[in-house]
Amino acid sequence: KQELEQLLMMETKNYRKTIKFYQKLLQKERRSKGPETKSMLLKLRGQLQEMKSKVQFLELVKKYIMYAEQWGVESPVLLTVIHNGRTDTMDVAPTDESSLLLYYNTEKYQCNHQNGARILQAGTPLGLMAYLYSRNAFLEGYVQQFLYTFRYFCTQEEFLQFLLDRISSTLSSASLDPSTSLSKICNRSFYILQAWIEDCYSVDFATNTDLLCTLKEFISSKVAPLNGYGERLLSLLEEASARKSGSALQGYSMDKCEEEGEEERKTLHSLCKKLSEDVSRKAGLFFRLQYNFNWKLSKGVGPIAQYQRERLCTISSVLPKPCYNNFTEFPVSFAKADEVGPYLLIEYSVQQLCCQLTLLQQEVFHKCHPVHFLNSRALGVKDKCVAVQKAVSTETVSLKACNLFLSKCVQDQYLLQLLRNADSISTWVAAEIVTCHTSKLQVSLLSKFLLIAKGCYEQRNFATAMQILAGLENLIVRQLPAWKILPAKVAEIMEELKAVEVFLKSDSLCLMEGERFKTLPTIPSAHVLAMHVQQLETGGFTMTNGAHKWTKLRNIAKVVSQVHAFQENPYTYTPDFKLQSYLRQRITCFKDADISSLAADNSANFHQIPAEKHSRKIQDTLRRMKATFQ
């Protein structure tokens, strides 16, 4: 807390100094009106906005710590949490904490923490749920990590019943002295429930109507009449339902909670996530990127900004504006896109295509949730992303054995849709190339896709970059004669893309490292991220005494939490709806295409033998055959 106070004071001081300097520079610019002063003002304006956001964030964190200290309980009180929520159907309650939770101490940890706090190593399902009430559960990131991973050891219904039992047994005491343990348990239960709704409504409540009805009925009948927090929770459920159904604005907004009353209610859990991520970064866990890979990002910003200012009038102006909300919902007729063919891809610049493909990818990525990447083996996701639907239908028996969640847990399958979209883009890339009727057009299109992939990964859109790479690595595409006449500098991009793929597969947290992660938007490769999670899921989840390994669950939660971290910093390119319409139509047109069949109908896909050389070969063959009969 003292460190936070010092950091807040320092950032506030720097912010005020920068404001004074900006005001002086502004007066100087009004007098001289020089280009250098103007460019300096633009840079300072951006720095001021960033510094202001940092100060506001630290103030909110400070406010959050007050809540955490107010409603958290000390370790000995965790048994009270369990005893107060007991029902007749529960097993015999434990008498000591050691039967619920296992800790380990390290000298290094004790040196860094004056209170000598212990590190949670493992626990029973009941113990792990009870630890949500500990004083530092929010600050340590435990609550967020628990909400992502509890499905490995308990169902949504069991977790909800645990919270409701604690609220029922302590609700009458919540209005009394706030310093009592019962009052703290009740209020912490409300905050945990709020965090669950805010963070996991789409994967737990929206997909399970019985769970949602149970929660609404409990709040309406038992909480709302006695406590004002009931109305807040009901309002939160309505807002979450509206966002899920699409009645609210789509996409992520950084400025949703501007009113003070709304801030207190909505931003608590997002603060916990941001704080835990910030603490992790400060601990030095994720700082290896600049040493592992030399990113080249210098060309990413300038041309894009120029493209946004200077929109070209092209053939695409005749295409209709799209009117669909989902990446997979496209118009039935593709006549206009077919008429234009691949020539529109040649007409648009690399940066234009790169920006619009990134926005299309962002649209589907922002609909996914960290939990979607868990237990992907049970959905049929394998190391090589092929025919996800077929795998699910033909290997149902074996996939049931791969299910790591409890059998009654309802699992959202949005990851399959995300992977099918990725596969559709890869197939589209390959199809566009093999349907070019001249070698010259094939070379142009190969160059275009290679440069688009390079632009995407330079802008940290690794998803589209890897999808294009998969399309270019198609067996039919790799055998095209056009590769031999491709300019050497362009051909080198292929090896560069393969190096990026190796880098992404090397470390599950590589994209969270460095300063660029904090300032630049990022879209990870869904398949690569799912494979990293699968690797962490390998091995047992329980110890010999039956306790669940929290260290293993925490590592899984850290990896999938990248999804929310990346979604908080979206791309802000200007959308070109006409170009997006064309791209959507072409992708859908080719998403189920058979590349080998398309390639067989095009002579440009085969190595051509010159007529004279071909005639000479026939004559030589006939001469040899004639000699055998003499």
UniProtKB/TrEMBL annotation:
CDD domains: REM. The keyword Phosphoprotein does not apply. Keywords: Guanine-nucleotide releasing factor. GO terms for biological process: regulation of dendrite morphogenesis; small GTPase-mediated signal transduction. GO terms for molecular function: guanyl-nucleotide exchange factor activity. Gene3D superfamilies: Ras guanine-nucleotide exchange factors catalytic domain (1.10.840.10), Son of sevenless (SoS) protein Chain: S domain 1 (1.20.870.10). PROSITE patterns: RASGEF_CAT (PS50009), RASGEF_NTER (PS50212). The keyword DNA damage does not apply. One of its GO terms (cellular component) is neuronal cell body. InterPro entries: KNDC1, Ras-like_Gua-exchang_fac_N, Ras_GEF_dom_sf, RASGEF_cat_dom, RASGEF_cat_dom_sf. Residues 349-600 form the Ras-GEF domain. Residues 116-241 form the N-terminal Ras-GEF domain. PANTHER family: KINASE NON-CATALYTIC C-LOBE DOMAIN-CONTAINING PROTEIN 1, VERY KIND PROTEIN. This is KNDC1 protein. It comes from Atlantisia rogersi.
